[in-house]
Amino acid sequence: MLQRVKVLLELQDDSMNTILQFYIDDVQQAILDYCNIDELPPQLETLVIKKVMELYKGQQDGDQVKSIQRGDVRTEFVTAQSLGDLITDLVPRLERYRKPKGGRFI
Questions:
Q1: What is the pLDDT along the chain (106 residues), one digit of tens a residue?
Q2: Using an 8 Å Cβ cutoff, are 65 and 75 in contact?
Q3: Which of 46, 69, 92, 96 is deepest in the core (most CB within 10 A)?
Q4: pTM (predicted TM-score)
Q5: Are 42 and 28 contacting, i.e. CB atoms less than 8 angstroms apart?
């Protein structure tokens, strides 16, 4: 998966391999946790790749301003996403792969 991400991002060297692999592992684990599954179905690999590319591009753009207040000067920057925030936009596509916790609905 790392090689596919690098090709799509047009990265020639290995200088970003560690951060890209971290993103891959993080997004993949978030999906596994949300879906309550142990192994990522091949159909979801493209979602991981797209999200990793999004995270990488956001990191390359630097800090993003979340809000600005001029009186008494307040500036807020977007911070790292929580597990839920990381895949929120993927939820509709993940629902078909989600298994109930504990095995049964009551």
A1: 999 999 999 999 999 999 899 999 999 999 999 999 999 999 999 999 999 998 888 776 554 545 556 777 765 555 445 445 678 888 888 999 999 887 554 4
A2: yes
A3: 46
A4: 0.71
A5: no
